Known about the structure:
Number of helices: 6
Low-confidence stretches: 481-487
Number of strands: 30
Mean pLDDT: 81
Structural class: mainly beta
Strand order of the largest sheet: 10-11-12-13-17
Amino acid sequence: xxxxxxxxxxxxxxxxxxxxxxxxxxxxxxxxxxxxxxxxxxxxxxxxxxxxxxxxxxxxxxxxxxxxxxxxxxxxxxxxxxxxxxxxxxxxxxxxxxxxxxxxxxxxxxxxxxxxxxxxxxxxxxxxxxxxxxxxxxxxxxxxxxxxxxxxxxxxxxxxxxxxxxxxxxxxxxxxxxxxxxxxxxxxxxxxxxxxxxxxxxxxxxxxxxxxxxxxxxxxxxxxxxxxxxxxxxxxxxxxxxxxxxxxxxxxxxxxxxxxxxxxxxxxxxxxxxxxxxxxxxxxxxxxxxxxxxxxxxxxxxxxxxxxxxxxxxxxxxxxxxxxxxxxxxxxxxxxxxxxxxxxxxxxxxxxxxxxxxxxxxxxxxxxxxxxxxxxxxxxxxxxxxxxxxxxxxxxxxxxxxxxxxxxxxxxxxxxxxxxxxxxxxxxxxxxxxxxxxxxxxxxxxxxxxxxxxxxxxxxxxxxxxxxxxxxxxxxxxxxxxxxxxx
Length: 487
């Protein structure tokens, strides 16, 4: 290339150079810092790292309130933006040292809420970002700020004593958290043996100056057939998917739609993307476009489902046949980042998890769903790579988490909490994946653990000590290296 046509990075206007750095990988910015004095000065500006951390949080779907960017030091901003790289480095280093577990930084921290009884804690959820911990305790939805000790809840809201579970979703701008709480209506006195109608309530937690505030957005009573449905929030809509029907509800405009699928297969996984619902079943993937939403005939109650089934607009068979056991049964699961990450186009991938015949090995095939933008064939399945894992008697699988261009899958066994960190895209298919034990956990409840790879923080409820254990795996920021000599 002609040297006259090569643009020297240092010759760019200052504002243009800042714009380039805002879209540069954090590790590359640190590498640029070592090249010359000018880059040392530019890459040491707090404004650069505030913009970089903002972008990295968005790319990893991390709650932005987890990091008070305007109050953080330069070292804290750099360490936070390097979170995915630091997590991958920690796993890689432990693997090279022939370790089977990821070494924690130090002793565990414990939260001892007054009068805390683990059996009354129905659910905990560590919000991606590792700062805020949600708990559902005796009908109270509580949020704890782990940056400020977290001994007492920073915010407590009694939702209902009948609530036993909730799902948490990030908003598209990363500024708020929306929570779907499912509760049951009181038993009918006229028909005492009839199952109650499920009611879904939507709450939103916003953050002003790092102080959370919760508000109830809306509630809707669903038909009785929605008992046991899986729920997802995508933007302003709640999607409920069951065996034979799907419901969509815009909780801001209070409009809804409900249609039958004419299916007898239970869904293995559901992904909600923009205006489509993807239902994964044993036979393949059925894709519906969400129909137009209309106001209910009775406010606060979803209309009965139409008897006319709505056929899926598209159907995708799995690219490879699934091996069958001796009895001819197909035993596999589908998993993905389908809860917290609804609505993100780059999250359109999934794992097909096949159990070995001896039930000790898991064969995992990771696929990407490509949008072709072709009217006749808008979706295409492409296998990224495959790998195997030791089953180790998994008793509970935790939600998948995004960590840069890698995916973190964690699960509970009878004795430990395990974690696998591996690539999620075809571009990184040649990269190794690492499996490490995070801690021993013989006393962890079924839904009472959460891991955030972005900050390397693990939280779990302990039945032995009647508290919430917090373990950190990533070191705090250290002093920067001295500047290099040069221009």
